[in-house]
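Sequence, structure tokens quoted for completeness.
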Amino acid sequence: MSEPGTKTPTFVRFSTFIGSKGSKDTAIDVRGFATKFYTQEGNYDNLALSFGVFIIKDAMKFADLTHAIKPNPKTAVPQAASAHDTFWDFVANNQESAHMVMWLMSKRGRPRSWRMMEGWPINTFRLNQCRGQIHVCTLRVEACTGRTRIADGRSQCLRWC
């Protein structure tokens, strides 16, 4: 993996964060992807989100966030755009989430395609060199096609077609 020109097989899986079964791809949502690198030294996994900020700073709040975003427990209606009150209650009570909500509600919340989405790293890798030097790195992905978003009018058409 450290030799220039080495070809490394990879597998990438794309997903949405909030959308459950039956939700639309055009909904405002955090998107992400997982990349698996199959190297001679072993397999490496890298996770990335479409935003450079995350909604919480405290890992203990992740379960609360997940429960706030789940579909309505009585109707099981998918809430891909977090339209129900539990999400907004969570945001109101956790002020650190305001930054990501601003990103989510901007044009970044609805990329035109997976190819036009940035990838902000979740994982950090520790790289050890043979001389004993240690480097910490993350893998950030930038789209070669640019960051193009679906216009609001177009997303409505795609949603109901």
Remarks:
- The chain has a mean pLDDT of 79.
- The two ends are 45 Å apart (CA to CA).
- The longest strand covers residues 31-39.
